[in-house]
Amino acid sequence: MRDPRDLFELLTGDIEAQAPVLLHSLSGFLDAGQAGRLAVAHLLGSLEHRAVATFDLDDLYDYRARRPRMTFRADHFVSIDLPSLELVEVRDAAGVPFLLLHGAEPDHAWQRLAEAVRLLVDQFAVRLTIGLHAIPWPAPHTRPVGVTAHATDSALVAGYAPWVGELEVPGHLAGLLELHLGDTGHDAMGFAAHVPHYLVGAEFPTASLTLLEHTARASGLTLPLGELAEAADRTRAEIEAQISANPENVGAVRALEAQYDAVMSSRALDGVGAADDAPLPTGDEIAAQVERFLADMDDGQA
What we know:
Elements: E1 8-10, E2 21-27, H1 35-46, E3 49-55, E4 70-73, E5 76-80, E6 85-91, E7 97-104, H2 110-123, E8 128-137, E9 147-151, H3 173-183, E10 188-196, H4 205-219, H5 226-244, H6 247-270, H7 288-299
Parallel strand pairs: 2-7, 2-8, 8-10
Antiparallel strand pairs: 1-3, 3-6, 4-5, 6-7, 9-10
Helix pairs in contact: 1-4, 2-3, 4-5, 6-7
């Protein structure tokens, strides 16, 4: 394996954080409702931060598979939105420093990159790494956003009831990073917010708010959530207005609510922490109105 240090440039080896927490959220996979992107944007937009390390994406990113957007004006190109991946030091609302790895999920050299992050974790004596992402879920937007918690040590997610047993999912760098950190003796965990499956293509700040609430609880960080909560309220009102304009959409959501509430009642009877033998219904099991609702949302007509 080529030297993982070749993948990044360390801008400073001197950070103020002592045994910091490292948060990470990468675009490109497992970001339903753009929950991770919105959470990162909120943190960087509301907290003081500075770059610590940058990664050379020319060795990591497939530009032809995921072509960056360019702006053309009349007779010339104006700009290009090139992807980036960087590690920044952020101060929470109480002035406590933490680290945040954010940007595009690379297409290549995953194992080298995971080792590169491990080297940075060791260099900065990171005590806990937390991944933020979001997944489609057969749940209505009218219910609290659930989360799937996972960790290298079950003690880190004590009190979180599993939603599923064993299953295979597409590989992603965030998952590999958690595995690699665990294999090398580091504490790592993550939260996957459950985004209503009919809202996966839209911005859903309620899921971002949920991710940061759980992250704050797990890490002890003081994260500003007021503006994000306001954005979640506005988005919820917009969704309600769209749905109420179509009686079939209203019926579809009510049916989904009934199914979701039945599953939650079953989980409550089973006890907190018990694996659920009767998982939530899949999208294919939702009534025909939901399928039409999904199509309407995709077309921007709902």
